[in-house]
């Protein structure tokens, strides 16, 4: 044990004795950095990236410990935060299931307005992907293929009510399509299932599909951002097809309900600092995300707006 | 043992039925087009549990297993005493965690077990009671960065000192 | 040839003084983390992240590999010495490792586990080096029906592993599978089986909660009660000569298990989602099946230690493949490594082997070196673990109880889990008295969460038509073998009954 102890103190002394941020409140123990999704997906990668930036820049006196709680479309993590016994040391990396899960499962008793807004790190666009071997190159060809399959066209995503299923539901509605949607465990598994031809189309974030896109296995045929994306030249946006629909995944940090104002101020400062690092700005660029910085009040307003939008989207299904 | 065997099977059968009931809330049907519903898998497996307990009961009637023939008591006096002292000690240990913190509860449990149950000398007990929780503290909090419950607020002064050492 | 030179470079980098020091520290720390019930390589690798910024990325990878290997070796140590599997991958190691320890042959079991692990890891590394790109393509062709077929095969292998009482074994399997469904339904996202409406069950029941309850509390109580507190201590002495003799015995009795585990483990490990637990289990079962003395298994056969250990170590190395080439982390540990790769600016995917050969082969090169040092460090710590076992039982027992509780908390950091551990512990004590085998339940809770979603995904794909399992070229043969294996013990069960009726 002695050697471990020495090593423990050694690592602590080397890595973690950090200059304090300016805020008065300081974390007293490691911070439970809850992730609303399984390992390997977009949210997970972002959490681990943020953690490493915070470590690298010595921003914290106590470490952020990532904790994947993706069960039940994120319900597991919302309940975890709602019942956190130490709200000052519990924060959550969210995606849009932050809005959809409480709407779909009112029994959980989650009111997101009780959560503490901290930082909006960016928004992640979506694209529609097919396997290159399918020969489909345009969205119109895809529509024909889906219609020809007559209900046997198999799509996949991260779960009913999750972001990608909302986009598919919109497409089904708008273009009168019938598809079969298979849920997988995380965006990475979805991308691999498409590459392995287990499913025929996905709605993935650019970061999740990048490996297979570079290898030439999969191809984007439509993007769901407001306009075309620089990384996929020539791929049309849905808005150009006469449908006023765009959809992004929020990459935001929220605090547990009941977090003290001092602690919230500390985390807002911390993530502002992370947001402004060169590393984070580069990450946004390579992962094709857009910055959408908001202060806490603006975030609350954004939550209200998104709740409204998602209620309509889910009801329209 | 013979009585215990059938009582156990009965309790497990009730547990199976309860689980079947719980699973049925999620829909146990097999929908054409989409396959099984959410409760399908747990419901039929719980049914499997129930059927197994039926076979256990059948074996009991036929006296086919050693337990269903044995007339020994499930727990003799020694067994009851062990279960109460050791098992009760563990329950007390866990109950204490939220009051005197994880490491405090460990120290008290070790004191109880080593001194009262094990009847070891103070020379062995005292170092174990002090050093083992302390070693675990540095291992978990320092090296592994996992924080354990600190109990009620009266333990704070101790933990503030300890946290200052590791961070 | 280019691969070999890259691999050689990776190994040369690994044996530079700084890196060698990191390997020794990493393996040692990993060994203790793995030996602690409730903690595994994931915790070890998580603490590595701060360190990766203090040393060059190359050294960081090496440190990671060292912790990974150390923890894998460590899992067997708690299985053998404490009787608590530290990770789901080490459950099968308790089957024979624990009986050996109780017979006073803990040293032999530890040596066998170390050597099995080393051979498994080495074979896996060689197979990885030779076949990685081809296997990546095979792994992609494993969709939900194939994974489900594989899980069925794993279940089939452990129908034969339970006790003599088939009804109790089946109960145990079903019970574990039902417990695995508690929490959320992955397909529909709805809460499911919240027993007694406790919200604590929303997080599901983790393998560790059941395993620590069953082995750390239930089995311990049973041991104290059934031995009347007069447990025999291990009297294995701690000498170099003894260790060498044990190595000889391991080679003589355990070579077959080692060979089976090494190859089978690798092929199961490279499949996404399958992982090291079914690999170790299947290695154990196959070794038992082909053995001339299958009845010795479960009572302390050396092959019953080497097979699962070679299998899980081989599979853990193999599971790097889906992570590197598909971007799917097969385990929480590889998820953290995946996060690390993002930070180092690498994109996992089919192109990784082509675009970043120095990273990939450097990593594999450090696996070879780490595996070797993990063996040395493990062997040199065996006397310490034996010394622990020689403590009076009234000292060892409370220590095991404390480690169970503290480790159980560390795994999920939720007091609810600790109370659940106690419930399972006391339940297991009584079930143990009535001779219910509980290992099947413990394994079922690991495999259930893989089997159920893949079954339902497959049936969604086929619009509810179960023939999908028999019309796809890979899943069909696996299904057929699995069904035959399930029916075999059932036939055996029927036959003696018929003859007893005839009597």
What are its keywords?
heterotrimer; A: 317 residues; alpha/beta; D-Maltodextrin-Binding Protein, domain 2; 2 domains; five-stranded mixed sheet; 11 helices; 42% helix; 18% strand; disordered N terminus; C: 503 residues; mainly alpha; two-stranded antiparallel ribbon; 2 strands
CATH class of the largest domain in chain A: Alpha Beta
Number of helices of chain B: 6
Distance between the termini of chain A: 59 Å
Q: What count of domains describes the coordinates of chain B? A: 2
Radius of gyration based on Cα positions of chain A: 21 Å
The backbone outline of chain A, from C-alpha atoms, is globular
CATH architecture annotation of the largest domain in chain A: 3-Layer(aba) Sandwich
Largest interface (CB within 8 Å) is between: B-C, 72 and 67 residues
Oligomer: heterotrimer
Write the layout of secondary structure elements.
The complex is a heterotrimer of chains A (317), B (167) and C (503).
Chain A: H1 2-16, E1 31-35, H2 42-56, E2 64-68, H3 75-82, E3 90-94, H4 97-104, E4 116-125, E5 127-131, H5 139-149, E6 153-157, H6 163-175, E7 179-183, H7 187-195, E8 201-204, H8 206-214, E9 218-223, E10 248-255, H9 261-275, H10 278-286, H11 296-315
Parallel strand pairs in A: 1-2, 1-3, 6-7, 6-8
Antiparallel strand pairs in A: 3-10, 4-10, 5-8, 5-9
Chain B: H1 2-24, E1 30-31, E2 35-36, H2 40-61, H3 66-69, H4 77-117, H5 122-143, H6 156-166
Antiparallel strand pairs in B: 1-2
Helix pairs in contact in B: 1-2, 4-5
Chain C: H1 2-14, H2 17-35, H3 41-51, H4 57-81, H5 91-102, H6 106-140, H7 144-159, H8 166-180, E1 183-184, E2 191-192, H9 207-226, H10 240-269, H11 276-290, H12 303-318, H13 320-326, H14 332-343, H15 352-355, H16 357-389, H17 393-412, H18 415-433, H19 439-461, H20 468-471, H21 475-502
Helix pairs in contact in C: 1-16, 2-4, 2-16, 3-4, 3-14, 4-5, 4-6, 4-12, 4-16, 5-6, 5-12, 6-10, 6-12, 6-13, 6-16, 7-11, 7-19, 7-21, 8-19, 9-17, 9-18, 9-19, 10-11, 10-12, 11-12, 17-18
Give a brief rundown of this model.
The complex is a heterotrimer of chains A (317), B (167) and C (503). Chain A is α/β, with parallel strands linked by helices and 317 residues long. Chain A is built from eleven helices and ten strands.
Description of the molecule:
The complex is a heterotrimer of chains A (317), B (167) and C (503). Chain A has helices at 2-16, 42-56, 75-82, 97-104, 139-149, 163-175, 187-195, 206-214, 261-275, 278-286, 296-315; strands at 31-35, 64-68, 90-94, 116-125, 127-131, 153-157, 179-183, 201-204, 218-223, 248-255. By secondary structure, chain A is an alpha/beta fold. Chain A has two domains: 3-124 and 248-314, D-Maltodextrin-Binding Protein, domain 2 (3-Layer(aba) Sandwich); 127-241, D-Maltodextrin-Binding Protein, domain 2, CATH 3.40.190. Chain A has a five-stranded mixed sheet, sandwiched between helices. A five-stranded mixed sheet of chain A has the order 7-6-8-5-9, with helices on both faces. In chain A, strand 1 (31-35), helix 2 and strand 2 form a beta-alpha-beta unit. The model of chain A is unreliable at 1-23 (pLDDT under 50). By secondary structure, chain B is an all-alpha fold. Chain B has six helices and two strands. Chain B has helices spanning 2-24, 40-61, 66-69, 77-117, 122-143, 156-166; strands at residues 30-31, 35-36. In chain B, strands 1-2 form a two-stranded antiparallel sheet. Chain C has one domain (2-494). Helices cover 75% and strands 1% of the residues of chain C. Chain C contains 21 helices and two strands. Chain C has helices spanning 2-14, 17-35, 41-51, 57-81, 91-102, 106-140, 144-159, 166-180, 207-226, 240-269, 276-290, 303-318, 320-326, 332-343, 352-355, 357-389, 393-412, 415-433, 439-461, 468-471, 475-502, and strands at residues 183-184, 191-192. In chain C, strands 1-2 form a two-stranded antiparallel ribbon. Residues 497-503 of chain C have low confidence and may be disordered. Chains B and C meet through helix 1, strand 1, strand 2, helix 2 and helix 4 of B and helix 2, helix 3, helix 8, helix 9 and helix 17 of C.
């Amino acid at each position: 044990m002695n050697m471990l102890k020495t090593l423990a103190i050694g690592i602590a002394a080397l890595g973690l004795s950090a200059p304090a941020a300016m805020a008065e409140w300081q974390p007293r123990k490691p911070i439970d950095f809850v992730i609303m999704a399984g390992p390997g997906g977009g949210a997970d990668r972002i959490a681990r990236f943020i953690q490493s930036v915070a470590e690298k820049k010595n921003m914290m006196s106590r470490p952020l410990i990532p904790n994947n709680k993706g069960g039940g479309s994120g319900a597991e993590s919302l309940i975890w935060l709602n019942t956190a016994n130490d709200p000052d040391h519990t924060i959550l990396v969210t995606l849009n299931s932050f809005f959809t899960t409480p709407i779909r499962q009112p029994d959980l008793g989650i009111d997101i307005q009780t959560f503490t807004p901290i930082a909006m790190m960016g928004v992640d666009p979506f694209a529609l992907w097919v396997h290159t071997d399918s020969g489909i190159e345009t969205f119109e060809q895809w529509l024909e293929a889906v219609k020809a399959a007559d209900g046997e066209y198999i799509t996949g995503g991260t779960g009913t009510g999750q972001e990608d299923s909302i986009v598919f539901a919109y497409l089904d509605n708008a273009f009168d399509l019938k598809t079969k949607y298979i849920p997988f465990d995380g965006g990475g598994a979805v991308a691999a299932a498409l590459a392995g031809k287990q499913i025929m189309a996905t709605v993935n974030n650019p970061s999740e599909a990048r490996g297979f896109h570079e290898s030439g296995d999969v191809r984007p045929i439509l993007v769901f951002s407001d306009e075309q994306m620089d990384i996929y030249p020539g791929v049309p946006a849905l808005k150009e097809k006469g449908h006023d629909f765009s959809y992004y995944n929020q990459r935001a940090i929220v605090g547990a309900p009941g977090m003290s104002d001092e602690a919230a101020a500390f985390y807002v400062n911390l993530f502002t600092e992370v947001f402004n690092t060169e590393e984070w700005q580069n990450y946004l660029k390579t992962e094709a995300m857009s910055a959408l910085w908001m202060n806490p009040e603006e975030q609350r307003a954004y939550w209200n707006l998104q709740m409204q939008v998602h209620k309509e989207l889910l009801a329209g299904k | 043992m013979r009585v215990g065997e059938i009582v156990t099977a009965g309790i497990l059968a009730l547990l199976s039925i309860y689980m079947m009931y719980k699973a049925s809330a999620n829909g146990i049907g097999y929908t054409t087009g989409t396959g099984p519903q959410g409760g399908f898998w747990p419901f039929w497996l719980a049914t499997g549990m129930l059927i197994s307990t039926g076979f256990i009961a059948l074996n009991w009637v036929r006296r086919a297993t050693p337990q269903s023939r044995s007339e020994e008591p499930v727990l003799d006096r020694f067994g009851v005493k062990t279960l109460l002292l050791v098992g009760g000690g563990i329950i007390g240990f866990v109950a204490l965690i939220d009051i005197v913190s994880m490491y405090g509860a460990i120290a008290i449990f070790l004191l109880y077990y080593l001194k009262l149950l094990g009847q070891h000398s103070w020379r062995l007990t005292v170092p174990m009671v002090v050093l083992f929780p302390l070693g675990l503290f540095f291992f978990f909090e320092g090296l592994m960065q996992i924080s354990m419950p600190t109990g009620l607020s009266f333990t704070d002064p101790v933990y503030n000192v300890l946290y200052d050492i590791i961070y | 040839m280019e691969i070999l030179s890259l691999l050689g470079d990776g190994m040369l980098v690994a044996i530079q003084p700084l890196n060698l020091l990191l390997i020794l520290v990493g393996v040692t720390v990993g060994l203790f983390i793995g030996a602690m019930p409730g903690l595994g390589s994931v915790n070890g690798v998580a603490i590595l992240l701060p360190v990766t910024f203090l040393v060059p990325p190359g050294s960081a990878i090496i440190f990671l590999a060292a912790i990974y290997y150390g923890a894998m070796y460590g899992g067997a140590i708690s299985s053998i010495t404490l009787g608590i599997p530290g990770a789901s991958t080490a459950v099968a190691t308790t089957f024979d490792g624990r009986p050996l320890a109780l017979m006073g042959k803990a040293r032999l079991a530890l040596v066998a586990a170390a050597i099995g692990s080393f051979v498994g890891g080495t074979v896996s590394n060689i197979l990885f080096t030779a076949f990685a790109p081809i296997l990546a393509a095979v792994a992609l062709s494993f969709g939900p029906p194939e994974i489900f077929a594989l899980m069925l095969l794993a279940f089939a292998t452990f129908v034969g592993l339970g006790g003599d009482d088939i009804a109790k074994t089946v109960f145990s399997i079903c019970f574990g599978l039902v417990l695995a469904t508690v929490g959320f339904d992955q397909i529909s996202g709805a809460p499911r089986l919240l027993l007694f409406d406790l919200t604590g069950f929303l997080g599901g029941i983790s393998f560790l909660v059941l395993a620590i309850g069953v082995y750390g509390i239930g089995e311990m109580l049973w041991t104290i009660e059934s031995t009347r507190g007069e447990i025999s201590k291990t009297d294995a002495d701690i000498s170099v000569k003894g260790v060498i003799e044990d190595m000889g015995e391991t080679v003589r009795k355990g070579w077959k298990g080692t060979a089976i585990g090494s190859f089978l483990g690798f092929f199961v490990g490279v499949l996404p989602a399958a992982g090291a637990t079914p690999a170790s289990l299947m290695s154990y079962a196959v070794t038992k099946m082909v053995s001339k003395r299958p009845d010795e298994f479960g009572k302390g056969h050396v092959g019953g230690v080497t097979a699962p250990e070679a299998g899980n170590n081989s599979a853990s190395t193999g599971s790097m493949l889906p992570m590197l080439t598909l971007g799917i982390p097969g385990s929480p540990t590889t998820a953290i490594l995946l996060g690390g790769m993002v930070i180092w600016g690498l994109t996992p995917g089919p192109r990784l082997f082509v675009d970043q050969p120095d990273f990939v082969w450097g990593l594999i090169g450090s696996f070879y070196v780490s595996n070797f040092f993990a063996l040395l460090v493990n062997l040199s710590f065996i006397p310490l673990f034996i010394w622990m076992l020689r403590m009076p039982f009234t000292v060892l027992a409370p220590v095991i109880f404390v480690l169970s509780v503290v480790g159980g908390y560390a795994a999920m950091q939720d007091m609810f889990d600790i109370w659940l551990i106690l419930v399972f512990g006391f339940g297991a004590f009584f079930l143990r008295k009535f001779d219910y085998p509980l290992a099947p339940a413990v394994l079922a809770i690991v495999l259930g969460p893989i089997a159920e979603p893949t079954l339902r995904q497959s049936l969604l794909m086929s619009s509810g038509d179960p023939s999908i399992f028999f019309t796809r070229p890979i899943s069909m043969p696996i299904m057929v073998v699995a069904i035959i294996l399930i029916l075999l013990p059932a036939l055996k069960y029927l036959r003696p009954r018929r003859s007893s009726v005839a009597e």
